[in-house]
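Notes from hallway chat w/ T.B., transcribed later so I don't forget. T.B. wanted the structure written out for a chain they're using in a teaching module, and asked if we could keep both sequence and structure tokens in one place. Agreed to drop them here.
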Amino acid sequence: MKRKYQIYILNTMIAILIGVFLFSTYRFIRISYYKESNKKTNNKIIKEVVIPNDSSNDENKEDGEFKIDFAKLKEINSDVVGWIYIPGTKINYPIVQRKDNWYYLNHDIYKKYNIMGSIFMNAWNQSDFSDSNTILFGHNNHQDSLMFTDLKEIYDGVLGNELTIYIYTEREVYTYQIYSVYLASPSDETPLNMKTNFFDHTQREFIYDKSDSVKTLTLSTCYKDSSQRIIVHASRNV
């Protein structure tokens, strides 16, 4: 009886280990598939709607000198409200917005299911970036620099202390200077307050002109896990 019990326990443990291995393998393959799909999707949308200026090259591209074909972009997805580009990073994506903050957590620009999601604007913001604080969300996949992963580079100080964000809209291109970056708890709603400036909330020093500040752009993503978020604030240049 004891021998049979030991065999039963051993077989149960082996079954559990096999199950864990199969689940881990499935999860790895699934995440890898969606990461690769996200890369292909972003490359495709860039080819379809990003228009280099006649004089553009790699150097002046960092001045935001390219155009977005918003007519074509909105044919692809009517939820588009803009495009974000941060020189020195791989952040170069369309921005979408719906009446909820859930859909684009796991849907791409073509509205296809993808766990990498999209860069999306807070549902309660005005879509024309006219609020005192416009908030954008995106995933951090901790590898591959997809979506908002490169915000960690900003938090770690890898990209220096003078950083510009370009926001393309149908009307114009807005430039923002990053002035604050820090970690916050997901339960802390202060960084998402639409009527707050955040000049004293930073764990890194940045070069910017505070006198030019009129509106804030806030970027939010998870840090190493869901227990903390990276928050980046930038001030729009007049």
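Follow-up for T.B.: Residues 35 and 193 are 31 Å apart (CA to CA). Might be a good example for the class.
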